[in-house]
Design goal:
mainly beta
């Protein structure tokens, strides 16, 4: 199993970023996927999840209305569109697969700052 995140960077408050997580080594279309984040000095927290078909999504309360999780099973990729970014969204963002065991990507840094 391999999960590779990309798309992070430095963005000003109010800006947008789209994160991608490219998956390989398993049958992607069979599994739900999740995005987590970890800010400095804080515990890792769930951002959003999406069912295997993409038909069901869930978000942490602080991300509702600003973030959108989606997936392309043909491309074996899960996305996180982040809009109206705030400084408190600064964190390393990870995608996760739960397949008996939890598999994590290496993370991508998102910094929201003017």
């Amino acid at each position: 199993v391999q999960l590779v995140e990309s798309g992070g960077g430095l963005v000003q408050p109010g800006g947008s970023l789209r994160l991608s997580c490219a998956a390989s080594g398993f049958t992607f279309s069979r599994y739900a996927m999740m995005w987590y984040r970890q800010a400095p000095g804080k515990e890792r927290e769930l951002v959003a999840s999406i069912s295997n078909t993409g038909g069901s999504t869930n978000y942490a309360d602080s991300m509702k209305g600003r973030f959108t999780i989606s997936r392309d099973n043909a491309k074996k990729t899960v996305y996180l569109q982040m809009n109206s970014l705030k400084p408190e969204d600064t964190a390393v963002y990870y995608c996760k697969l739960r397949m008996g065991y939890d598999y994590w990507g290496q993370g991508t840094q998102v910094t929201v700052s003017s």
